[in-house]
Design a protein that fits this description.
The protein contains nine helices and seven strands, in the order E-H-E-H-E-H-E-E-H-E-H-E-H-H-H-H. It is α/β, with parallel strands linked by helices.
Length: 247
């Protein structure tokens, strides 16, 4: 089947994957359905490029990019979507089923890069991983056995994206800021909150996740993100200057 040009804008991101065979299976699924941008964040084994399960997908594995931090892996994406089986976890994000989420992904792929995240086989995506996401998506499965093998989950998601690749008509909307720009805003805001005393050491980790989710919910445009960066940098500079002044 012909591969739509927008498929090149999808980044399949595997976070802390433990089994090289699952990485190979994910690469094979990507090759099956016309996707080629594989990104790995802290893979458990460095031998994944030789995975025997990547039949016919050697080029996908060979060009896979490795990152030490999830923020770097999604920095160029205007939409970051996590996948989850939900289980008993309390989600802090909007949740979409795959049939409803796939058209939203295809819609954004028409104009800008999108990251689709899959967590480790053992624990899935952590709360910190999810704090980088705009929303999360699940594959509808039986309640008695809701979790899927990583390679299978990637296959099902990519099939749903590829089965109706017709690009929907786009309305004129401002270009959204990429995740890297949003993360810079988040980091400066966190610095201001720490310096002002709003964030204390005892509550730093949970609060950082909440702040990261809050900033992403703003859906800032590229233009507005530059404005917010300027505002926050000025505030941070003034706070630091005030700390340095003698009493």
């Amino acid at each position: 089947m012909p591969v739509p040009a927008e498929f090149d804008r999808l980044r399949v991101v595997l976070v802390s994957t433990r089994n090289p065979l699952n990485i190979g299976a994910a690469a094979r699924a990507m090759s099956n359905f016309g996707f080629s941008r594989l990104r790995l964040v802290n893979p458990y084994s460095v031998a994944y490029r030789e995975a025997r399960s990547a039949v016919g997908a050697s080029s996908v594995l060979a060009s896979a990019e490795q990152f030490k931090d999830l923020a770097e892996a999604v920095a160029d994406c205007t939409l970051v979507v996590g996948t989850t089986a939900v289980r008993h976890r309390e989600l802090q994000h909007p949740l979409q089923s795959l049939p409803k989420g796939a058209p939203l992904l295809r819609n954004r792929l028409a104009s800008s890069p999108v990251a689709l995240l899959f967590g480790s086989e053992k624990v899935g995506l952590s709360n910190r991983d999810l704090s980088f996401c705009h929303w999360v998506m699940r594959i509808p499965t039986r309640e008695r056995n809701i979790s899927m093998n990583l390679g299978q989950a990637v296959s099902v998601c990519l099939y749903e994206l590829a089965r109706n690749p017709k690009t929907p008509r786009q309305s004129e909307k401002p270009q959204l800021a990429p995740a890297g720009e949003i993360d810079r805003i988040t980091m400066i805001l966190l610095e201001v909150l720490r310096t002002s005393g709003y964030l204390t050491p005892s509550r730093t980790a949970p609060a950082e996740e909440k702040v990261r989710r809050l900033v992403r919910r703003l859906n800032l445009s590229a233009h507005d993100s530059q404005l917010w960066l300027g505002i926050l940098r000025q505030i941070a500079w003034k706070i630091r200057l005030g700390e340095e002044l003698p009493e």
